[in-house]
Design a protein that fits this description.
This protein has 314 residues and is an all-alpha fold. It contains 13 helices and no strands. It has helices at residues 2-26, 35-55, 64-88, 100-108, 116-123, 128-154, 167-181, 189-199, 202-217, 225-249, 254-264, 271-278, 283-312. The longest helix is centred in the C-terminal third of the chain and has 30 residues, at 283-312.
């Protein structure tokens, strides 16, 4: 119980900043026309600085096994989660052409960045290695999103390489290369200090944007309880069991096990809403999955993380 309360204490600031984002939208402080600018600022300035600030001091990234296992776990669990959700979809009445693929992508992809990063920061405040492994894990997730999930949702045979030219992906790759080659020691101290001071803006800004997005979504759709329950079952029950079993029994680094415990507890990510709008999916299904799992995770996330930390032994 003490562990669960500690995790809840770490999660409460995340919830409060998300709530603040909704309130700022409600009272017209953060208007919809500001979203694009703020998102670009987060993706191309704040997050790259945060990533490099954490990765360039993480000695664990000099180990190729840690690198490949972290990125591989990020890629593999997203693909497995999407496939599991794809086969679950017919049980709640979804078929190809009626939202099965959108459900698979929405339930299979967790909120691996915006929620995971602050949780890692709160739970492991003095351990930069865990944060660095999280970013490397998320690199694998990004590759899964822009290859397997995109092809599943849209039917595209081959994605464009341009989708990988994103600030966080390039920053993670740069961090890995520098740590593997030892060139990080040539980065001036003033630049490292800049990364540190600018990077701290990434998490609160991102959480505010999550709050504004949630405010925009709630109340603009008819909620499908059956679909929502299916998303909760897949994202917050079946997939977490699989991830925690792998975290316990596979020969992974302690940092990656810690990351997987947190990733297992997360609700559906919001990016499938954007993907479904642009690649022919069912946006209403993506929204339902996000709303249902996000609300349910307020209860389940502290419990899953607390149990996972105890059972996996991290």
């Amino acid at each position: 119980m003490h562990e669960s309360l500690m995790v809840l204490q770490a999660a409460i600031p995340v919830y409060l900043v998300v709530l603040l984002g909704g309130l700022l939208r409600r009272y017209g402080v953060l208007r919809p026309k500001m979203d694009r600018f703020l998102m670009l600022l987060a993706v191309y300035v704040f997050y790259p600085c945060l990533i490099l600030d954490k990765m360039l001091v993480a000695e664990v990234l000099r180990d190729p096994v840690v690198l490949w296992s972290s990125a591989g776990a990020g890629f593999g669990f997203i693909v497995i989660g999407a496939l599991l959700s794809y086969f679950l979809a017919p049980l709640i009445g979804l078929k190809v052409g009626s939202g099965r693929r959108t459900f698979a992508v929405s339930a299979g992809l967790q909120n691996y960045g915006f929620i995971a990063i602050p949780l890692v920061a709160y739970l492991y405040p003095s351990n930069d290695d865990v944060m660095a492994v999280l970013f490397t894990h998320n690199l694998g997730v990004e590759f899964a999103v822009w290859t397997v999930l995109l092809m599943l949702l849209s039917g595209m045979a081959r994605p464009s390489w341009r989708v990988f030219l994103k600030g966080p992906i390039l920053a993670v790759i740069a961090g890995i290369v520098m740590m593997q080659t030892g060139s990080e020691k040539y980065v001036p101290g003033t630049i490292l200090d800049l990364f540190s001071k600018v990077g701290v803006c990434a998490v609160p800004l991102s959480l505010l944007l999550v709050g504004t997005a949630m405010y925009d979504l709630i109340g603009k759709m008819k909620f499908d309880w059956k679909l929502g329950a299916g998303a909760v079952l897949a994202r917050l029950a079946l997939i977490p069991v699989l991830m925690l079993v792998c975290a316990k029994y596979l020969p992974l680094s302690i940092e990656l096990k810690q990351v997987l415990v947190i990733q297992a507890a997360l609700p559906s990510g919001m990016f499938p809403i954007v993907l479904s709008r642009h690649y022919g999916g069912r946006t209403d299904i993506a929204i339902t999955a996000v709303v249902a799992t996000t609300i349910a995770s307020l209860l389940t996330m502290p419990l899953v993380i607390a149990f996972g930390k105890f059972w996996v032994g991290v």
